[in-house]
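Tokenised fold entry reproduced for everyone:
>
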Amino acid sequence: MDQNNSTTNKRRWKQILEKERYQIESLLKAGLTPLLIGIQMDRDSRSIEWEIKRESNSSLTKEIRYCADVGQRVHEECAANKGRCLKIGKDHKLVSHIEKKIKDEKYSPDAVIGEIKEKGFVFESYICTKTLYNYIDKGLFLKY
């Protein structure tokens, strides 16, 4: 059976965009309910309710306000946490060895990895030169 004849429904869920968050904020200020906002935005009302609940900030008063900026910031923070764990993991000995060689002894990242291979140093994890350069670019090691 090919995709054209599939009996399953296509997944229709998609993330709420930044401009939609601002639209939710303005419609809430105008006094619309999540149901009416969902109808107007062609979204499920429950999605709107979850978004409002998740990104609302309440002060010491009992007034609860939705803030699109907070919603977008939280969304971006969660999106940044996605992905694979670091190969280097919790191998602090390898990190300190690499930092010592690069910072104190002025080795290049490629020379450090080459020395580890050549001399047969054993650490909990192993990384290649490209991974080391990527980690340095991301700022995971001390600035050199």
